[in-house]
Amino acid sequence: MTESVRPTMSPARFGLTEARTVDHLRAAGWWLDRPTEGSEPVLVALSRCPDPDLALRGVDRLREAVDWPALDAVLRADVVLRGRLLAVLGSSTALSDLLVGNPDLWRSLVDPEPVSSFDLLPAVADRSGADAVRALRLAYRAALCRIAAEDLAHVVEPDLPYVDYDHVAGLLSDLAVAALDAALDVARRQVAKSDECRLAVIAMGKCGARELNYVSDVDVVFVGEGDLGVATRVAGTMMQVAGQACFEVDAALRPEGKAGALVRTLDGHASYYQRWARTWEFQALLKARPVVGDERLGRDYLEVVRPMVWTAAERENFVPDVQAMRRRVEEHVPAGLADRELKLGRGGLRDVEFAVQLLQLVHGRGDETLRIQATTQALAALGRGGYVGRADAADFGRAYRFLRTLEHRLQLQRLLRTHLFPADDDAAGLRWLARSVGFTGEGGQSEARVLLGEFRKRANQVRRLHEKLFYRPLLQAVANVPTEALRLTTAEAALRLSALGYAAPDGALKHIEALTRGVSRRARIQGALLPVLLDLFATTPDPDGGLLAYRRVSEALAETPWYLRLLRDEGLVVERLATLLGTSRLVPDLLVRAPEVLRVLADTSALTGFDPMTIGNPLRSTVSRYNDLDRAVTAARSLRRQELLRVASADLLGLAGTRDVCVSLSQVWVAVLQSALDAVVRAAGPAPARIAVIGMGRLGGRELGYGSDADVMFVCEAVDGATDQEAVKYANSVVERVRRLLSAPSQDPALQVDADLRPEGRQGPLVRTFESYRAYYAQWSELWEAQALLRARVVGGDEKLGARFVEMIAPIRYPAAGLDAAAVREIRRIKARVEAERLPRGADPSTHTKLGRGGLADVEWTVQLLQLQHAGEVSALRTPSTVRGLRAAGEAGLIEDDDATALLDAWTLATRARNAVMLVRGKPNDQLPSSGRDLTAVAAAMGHGDEEPGEFLDSYRRTTRRARAVVERIFYGS
User: Fold this and answer.
1) Helix 79-89 crosses helix 68-77 at what angle (to 10 degrees)?
2) Where does the record place the region Adenylyl removase (predicted)?
């Protein structure tokens, strides 16, 4: 068929129906009587836009405003720009105006990397007045356009990544904070004497919770110190600048509302909330978050108000007040709009938010995991904690995200604040909204009908769950417990649990009900055990956590026939289990996967009667029986879990010393590593190389903690005529496979093999031959590497090769001539840099167990300096153990006995504290808790349960302070 008689094609095929569509397409170069070459991907993308005609009109306007050939070329070739730009043009007239008015702005949508942070300060640098407002408005709108483009792009180009509501809301909140920061910068430069005051801006509401809309007020509270008159002028100017450029800044949530002072001191806020605040104000404070201004003042504000937030539920009529407030909000919605009002209506967003906040405030008094600002995250935490059924939490969360997404899309159209769902007869509005969230017609229904059905379903779901959770009466759960001690009314049972020390008695009642529900034999045994366990848990640092952990363990072991029988017949097991579960979060996680260790709790000798040096032998023996690699590693993990739980139990019960714990953990790690290496070597077949594993760091010193990585180096040597290249290649494949197997995702504490202490660090080869190591250390070795080698020890693989390696490095780590003054200065310089750079931001150096003053690093570096200086002459210093090295230094007269004792006491205390934090929190952390139940639990785990937690902290600081004084004299020579 010739070109002249080829049939034409209608643009309607691509959803384009307006009268001037063909003119716009031709002007863009995308159409003659059908799509031009290369334009079809663009037209297909247009067809997926929420409003294809609106998108095409936007393209036509852009064509006249920008360098169209350049933009057209990118649109045809780049799916990222195509998806982002057309999605914005087909969704928002306001953002289309922005793009047309700023011809180069489209280029910001080309970057394939997602936006992650915002800095609007450069836009207002050296600007003031109307000039600053204009610059800030453009920068803010440009960033808003970028967020919207990423949010919508997957609708137009399905291959582009989907961006969920939580991420978008977080980005919008971060952008708002950046705008506040820029506005505050402008205000400080415009207000005279602004340096005479401190001002902190506290975000409230959705900005505080990082769940902001596209168009919303930003609620704030101001805290000031110094000249409050100046602070008030700065705050007012900031609000004016941000309001003119970006969004209204609303300070009505401050004490006394709009009638109150705009800026108050910290003491003024504290006094108001202690004496005058109403229930709703504590509910508002739930989402308070310092965002800009004076960081310390913001933190101090939170420290003042947070305790009040989490005791607000104790106020008289607290729950009825919150419920009444929700009803008042609902009553103010016009009757004709109640079913369409996404935010305030029945089944709307406020139904979810009020229910979640009430549950948080009631149960969060004792459960810190509920102290979360974002609604979706708090709802997930409520589900995890058992305060909301998992299915209900999931349904509530999905419905909330759906409604918030609809709200976002509606606001994007014209960048106006709206929460009104389209009317049933608004076919065009419903169709646009449905397509903007990715809905298509199905089952003969239009997009609009599908959207309507989903909206009504979600709204009804929200209302049902709101009424179920928000107006839930207390259950008579305790009546199911067949004991006189707990045969009480629900209110009486809650009071008794409170008196015992349970912070969330309602949550405890739910656990009791779950454990005793039904008339089975299991329920009867639990009914008999629980009165004893409740009293035992009450003596632990965390009764609520203990009872929750006990419920978890009981549910996990429900089908284990001997579990309850053991508890019923062995009183010692019950006592020890209560102590463990009420103190540690690590133990219950391990216990549900290694329940056989429960039997050992009844036998002290079985729990503690082991030689730490041989603890790994049974593990290696068992694993060696498996030829299948995966089964071998699974067996190694299982046996490690058992030993880890047994050691942790003995530790928490005060039955194991620090040395036994550290050596046991180190030897278990060695056994797992060696077993995995053996299994991989067996599976690999004939080996062209021998491999030795050299333990470094705490592994080399047999001083591992519960959360420590395994620092190692790998040495290989060719055998049977193989070349060095073949040996290294083989060894690399074996080592990489071992590391992959051990670091595979698991619910157990991590098994990370860290080889960063090898020559050249991360930049160096993972495996070297023996001769390569020799050559490197002879020519290139640096001082820090000699220091690292002080703790080197053979831990796996070929023992002879490992022994030769250790012999080879002896002159390097134990230099015969010691260290000259320059080397000592260099070590001191490196240590000082570590102190300055590695301590985490915000950490308390007086209670950071690793890098804090008088902590592990201080003691270890001091011992290592003495070793480098004197181990060439004093053979007793040639040990990878910090403790043995310290004792040898004392015996050799290199340090005074009192100094050695001070360092040893601090090292032992910091090691125990670091282990205790891991046991208590269930995850590695080098920082001692500063307060709360975690601190109480850490103190109890270290045998200080009879004293106030603050006394334990004071004791820790005194011990490490004495050690630091020794370090200053011996290490730094001061």
Assistant:
1) 110
2) 1-474
